Q: What sequence folds into this?
């Protein structure tokens, strides 16, 4: 494999496996009619790299009663660790696996569109534990080479403790 292909593989893999988590604090966001000096929105923004980890699935953990959809017959349950990054002042990433910051246990299932999958997750981020339901969309198949495919996943979060907000 030539160096350019190797660089493209690393770049796509990193882009496909990176995630951004934003948690909002309830009551901190000013409205359009706020008085001067009102508190600004409190946000916690994390930019983390995810890495899929091999673990044995637990029988029944991906049940449709928990996830709201029928999980894949095989490989439905997946585990990911999330790692903080180190960056230079110009924004260039110099370390992609600095400290373990979170973990995610997920279930995936088919939809009527082959490129789209149902997605359910339970997440631990520091001292927070919460859930999310949503979907993943494969943006391309076998890109930039066979066996690789960038995806975009979205979750509506729930089960967040006060003062965080997100879904029901």
A:
């Amino acid at each position: 494999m030539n160096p350019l292909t190797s660089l493209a593989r690393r770049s796509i893999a990193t882009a496909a496996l990176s995630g951004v988590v934003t948690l909002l604090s309830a009551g901190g966001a000013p409205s359009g009619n706020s008085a001067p000096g009102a508190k600004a929105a409190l946000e916690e923004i994390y930019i983390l790299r995810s890495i899929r980890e091999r673990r044995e699935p637990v029988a029944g953990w991906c049940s449709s009663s928990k996830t709201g959809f029928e999980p894949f017959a095989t490989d439905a349950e997946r585990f990911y660790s999330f790692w903080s990054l180190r960056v230079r002042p110009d924004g260039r990433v110099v370390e992609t696996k600095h400290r373990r910051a979170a973990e995610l246990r997920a279930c995936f299932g088919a939809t009527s569109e082959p490129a789209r999958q149902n997605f359910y997750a339970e997440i631990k981020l520091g001292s927070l534990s919460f859930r999310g339901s949503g979907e993943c969309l494969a943006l391309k198949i076998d890109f930039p080479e066979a066996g690789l495919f960038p995806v975009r996943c979205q979750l509506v979060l729930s089960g967040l403790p006060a003062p965080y907000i997100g879904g029901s």
